[in-house]
Amino acid sequence: MSAADWDQDRDDRQSWLEALKWDENGLIPAIAQDAATGRVLTLAWMNRESLRETLTRGRAVYWSRSRRRLWLKGEESGHFQEMRSVRTDCDGDVLLLSVEQLGGMACHTGRESCFFRELQGERWVSVDPVLKNPEEIYGNGS
Questions:
Q1: Considering only CA atoms, which of 45, 41, 88, 52 is closest in space to residue 69?
Q2: What are 29-88's pLDDT values in tens digits?
Q3: The domain 21-138: what is its CATH number?
Q4: What letter would DSSP give residue 107?
Q5: How many angstroms separate the CA atoms of 87 and 25, rounded?
Q6: How far is CA 10 from the centre of its chain?
Q7: Of 25, 32, 74, 117, whose CB has the highest number of CB atoms within 10 Å?
Q8: What stretches of the chain show up as alpha helix (H) in DSSP?
Q9: So what's the pLDDT on residue 12?
Q10: Helices 48-57 and 3-18: crossing angle, nearest 10°?
Q11: pLDDT tens digits, residue range 83-118?
Q12: What is the pairing mode between strands 28-34 and 95-101?
């Protein structure tokens, strides 16, 4: 590969990041969806570094707004998200990650999905079971 080809390749690799619409904090919402079932597992945030790290590792890495650092999904629980594909919507302002959810739980509450509450009448009702007590996962009852 010539130096010119290398420079063009590097520019192409950066342009896909710049094609996305990042918010004023340099973040973009990322929806994780089970590759086998299509179920939405979680919504998290990514910055450019976490998206690059996700593609490098082959596992979902998010930007934790509360911790103010990169967060490898599963680093504490062991419930990693293995990447299958990354898509963006028509506006380029949301990512859709197709993942294999290791351990069967995406939520820190011990459920398959973070979307376990359903509006029934005028109240939110938990409609999905706890698969594993969070104290058993984290040891501190997160």
A1: 45
A2: 999 999 999 999 999 999 999 999 999 999 999 999 999 999 999 999 999 999 999 999
A3: 3.10.20.810
A4: S
A5: 21
A6: 25
A7: 32
A8: 3-18, 48-57, 134-138
A9: 59
A10: 120
A11: 999 999 999 999 999 999 999 999 999 999 999 999
A12: parallel
